[in-house]
Design goal:
Elements (H helix, E strand, L loop, with lengths): L1 H17 L4 H19 L2 H8 L5 H26 L4 H24 L2 H5 L10 H31 L3 H33 L4 H50 L1 H10 L12 H5 L3 H20 L6 H13 L4 H22 L17 H16 L2 H4 L4
């Protein structure tokens, strides 16, 4: 579970790094981080090392981070619903968190060592310190989970994205499991504190609590990471398409870059380390190359020759070309001739309009430019050969 939690932490840290102003995302990242820390503190070696500082200190820390998990998940839904106006609501809920945490710490400090080491253990169920500790921790978690369940159900119904709807449903299942766990443990704690119930009769309910907690935490991590994972999977085909187009554009880009070196967009990105994480460098390089090519084609304006275009069109028709294929071949020939004229500094005596055929967005422009680049890389004899 620790590995799963830290994979979620890495994913959320990358997302927060890219969008630090996104308040719901920051809250979600803090939630996953608290889950991961709590999971790590449950590793026997680390738990023993922490307990050497003070008996039961690891258990106290785990429970405090668990309460923080409930708060940050509550903050995520509150920010999602109210935006920056959620700060006032969260101040009230943060006050309740502080109160619950203070009660937990106070009960733990006043408890004997045996209770400190395992405040939620059934063996300590008759100790009032253990009862107060459990009620404070699970009472706040139950309060937060009830609010979260209502919000996640509303968001799931309102969401138009299938992936988001599914992720919220998984998260709702996780919260329902954790709420059932809290109710189970509170029932056990109250039964032990207020009655003389046989511990054996309460043990199945306590075991159910442990399994519900495990199921809820794992399901919560899956729910939080579901949207990110599906987005990453969906981004792979786009990344492959951009990478392929980036390479196809190289012949045309190299020729224009040699003719107009000042058009290269060499601005240093704000954070190279940030760009090294994920697929963004490929996308940025691809878009930059498309923009540089378009700028270069415009700069060649005085060198486009009408006679060259007419000759290329005649050769293409003779080879059986027509429609978009013929138009692309004419434009490729026109750009190649304009580059030669630019190198000799010989403007066209009878100028031809600047080639333009792309659509109304960058992707369609890139598709058109890729065709031109592939055609320019071919020898003229092959380009105008009969199909």
């Amino acid at each position: 579970m620790s590995t799963l939690a830290f994979l979620g932490v890495i994913n959320k840290l990358v997302q927060v790094w890219r969008a630090p102003e996104d308040l719901p995302l920051r809250a979600l990242g803090a939630f996953v981080l608290c889950v991961a820390i709590a999971a790590v503190l449950n590793i026997p070696v680390l738990r023993t090392a922490v307990d050497e500082i003070g008996v039961g200190l690891a258990k106290l820390a785990v429970n405090l981070f668990t309460v923080l998990c409930a708060f940050f998940l509550l903050a995520f839904f509150t920010y999602s619903a109210y935006g920056s106006a959620a700060r006032h609501r969260l101040r009230v809920r943060l006050g309740l968190l502080g109160l619950a945490s203070a009660v937990m710490v106070g009960a733990w400090l006043l408890a004997p060592d045996a209770v400190r080491a395992a405040p939620a253990d059934m063996a300590n169920g008759h100790d009032p310190h253990a009862t107060v500790f459990v009620l404070a921790a699970l009472g706040y978690q139950g309060y937060a989970l009830v609010l979260n369940l209502r919000s996640s159900a509303s968001f799931s119904r309102a969401s138009a994205r299938v992936q988001l709807k599914r992720g919220l449903k998984v998260l709702a299942v996780a919260q329902a499991s954790l709420l059932a766990a809290a109710i189970s443990k509170i029932t056990v704690a109250l039964a032990q504190a207020l009655t003389s119930a046989d511990p054996g009769a309460l043990r199945p309910l306590n075991t159910a609590y442990l399994w519900l907690v495990f199921t809820g935490i794992v399901t919560a991590i899956v729910g939080v990471g579901y949207l990110a994972v599906t987005d990453m999977i969906a981004a792979v085909p786009v990344w492959r398409r951009h990478r392929r187009a980036y390479r196809q554009l190289r012949p045309l880009w190299a020729a224009l870059n040699a003719a107009f070196p000042d058009l290269a967009l060499n601005r240093v990105p704000m954070s190279r380390l940030r760009d090294a994480v994920g697929l963004r460098p490929t996308h940025r390089s691809y878009y930059r190359r498309v923009v540089e090519i378009r700028d270069g084609i415009v700069q060649l304006g005085p060198y486009y020759d009408r006679g060259t275009a007419e000759a290329a069109e005649a050769a293409g028709r003779e080879a059986g070309r027509s429609g978009a294929a013929l138009e692309s071949e004419v434009q490729a020939a026109l750009i190649a001739d304009a580059l030669r004229r630019k190198a000799r500094d010989e403007p066209a005596p009878d100028p031809h309009p600047i080639p333009a055929h792309g659509g109304h967005d960058l992707e369609s422009d890139a598709e058109w430019l890729s065709r031109l680049s592939v055609l320019m890389a071919e020898p003229p004899a092959r380009r105008f050969a009969a199909p």
